[in-house]
Amino acid sequence: MKATEFDKAFDEGKDLSAQLDWKAARRPNVEMKRVNVDFPAWVVSGLDQEAERLGVTRQALIKVWIAERLARRP
User: Fold this and answer.
1) For the domain 34-74, what is the CATH code?
2) pTM for the full model?
3) CA–CA distances in Å: residue 61 to residues 13, 31, 68
4) Which pLDDT band, with edges at 50, 70 and 90, does 41 fall under?
5) Alpha-carbon distance values, 35 to 19, 38, 61, 65 (Å)
6) 56 to 22, 50, 52, 62, 68: CA distances (angstroms)
């Protein structure tokens, strides 16, 4: 299917899922990359308390807080 045909079918609201290779699909800038960060014990304790209060994991809390901070930058 040509791109123009695909675009037209999409604009018409047709189901194009059969035309897509879902195994090759990628979301830009969402690839995970592991990093290690050392925190003082008091920081880890505070993170754990806040994570428990919110009902999330420490890792989830750190990810959200960092993402929020980065989103605020100019």
Assistant:
1) 1.10.1220
2) 0.61
3) 38, 19, 11
4) very high
5) 37, 10, 15, 16
6) 30, 9, 6, 10, 16
Given a contact cutoff of 8 angstroms between Cβ atoms, the answer to whether 58 and 51 are in contact is yes
Cβ 48 vs Cβ 58: under 8 Å: yes
pLDDT band at 1; cut points 50, 70, 90: confident
Where in the chain are the domains?
34-74
- Note the pLDDT tens digit of each residue in 42-65: 999 999 999 999 999 999 999 999
Amino acid making up residue 38: D
Distance CA 11, CA 63 (A): 36
